[in-house]
Amino acid sequence: MLVNKRTPLSPADYQPELVAVSTSADRDGEAVRPEVDAALTELSAAMRADIGEGTHVFSSYRSYARQTELYNSYVAQYGQAEADTTSARPGHSEHQTGLSVDLMGTSGQCRLDTCFGDTAAGRWVAEHGWEHGFIVRYPDGLEGVTGYEYEPWHLRFVGVEVSTAMHQQGARTYEEFLGAGSAPDYR
Ligand SMILES: [Zn+2]
Q1: Contacts (Cβ under 8 Å, ≥6 apart) of 49
Q2: Where are the alpha helices (DSSP H) in 129-173?
Q3: Rounded-to-integer distance, Cα 66 and Cα 63, Å
Q4: Which ranges carry the D-alanyl-D-alanine carboxypeptidase-like core domain (predicted)?
Q5: Cβ atoms within 10 A of the Cβ of 179, count?
Q6: Is residue 109 part of a domain?
Q7: 131 is a catalytic site residue
Q8: DSSP class of residue 92?
Q9: Catalytic residue among 151, 161, 175, 176
């Protein structure tokens, strides 16, 4: 399931099957598809075994209505051009698929900040996320392909088969792997 600035959700108000995120600091607040929660639990345990801290999800599924509120608040604050570099327009957010999460290490360093990529937790998810079916969806310097600035905290579940193939091929983005073409903007 590809979702980006040139490939909206269909239907726009698409809603996945959801369960509460087990590895969230706020269990009532976060939800993902069941297979994503299972993979996140494994990822967090493997990370804890390696570096002594697990992961906390702080953002996950967002409904079309919630994305509308969020995007509109960014536009009001920063203007549309700036908002479009960081927040998806309603119906274009990967968070609406139930397959994407924003996370941090349980130590809480660099929440929602690009410095997360330089923390032990950020380096671990970038290096090992694929072993559990996840990719860092918006890598550094590839805004022209993905349409978004570097977000080391935003992981997308693609399943172990796809993440392994991407790792083996050295594909840096989902767009590149699918041969889907770049999605730098809304056209
Ligand atoms: Zn995100």
Answers
A1: none
A2: 143-146, 160-169
A3: 5
A4: 31-159
A5: 7
A6: yes
A7: no
A8: -
A9: 151
104, β-bridge pairs: 56
**Which residues, in sequence order, are bridge partners of residue 55?**
105
What is the Å distance from ligand 1's center to 52 Cα?
24
Find the 101 Cα to ligand 1 centroid distance in Å. 6
Q: How many domains does the chain have?
A: 1
Q: How many residues does the chain have?
A: 187
184's tokens: 């730098």
* Residues contacting residue 66 through CB under 8 Å, at least 6 positions apart: none
pLDDT tens for 19-63 read 999 999 776 789 999 999 999 999 999 999 999 999 999 999 999
Tell me the pLDDT band of 67, cut-offs 50, 70 and 90. very high
Give pLDDT tens digits for 119-140: 999 999 999 999 999 999 999 9
Domain extent, residue 101, equals 19-178
User: Are the C-beta atoms of residues 95 and 59 closer than 8 Å to each other?
Assistant: yes
Residues 132, 164 contacting (CB under 8 angstroms)? no
Task: Establish if 66 belongs to a structural domain.
Answer: yes
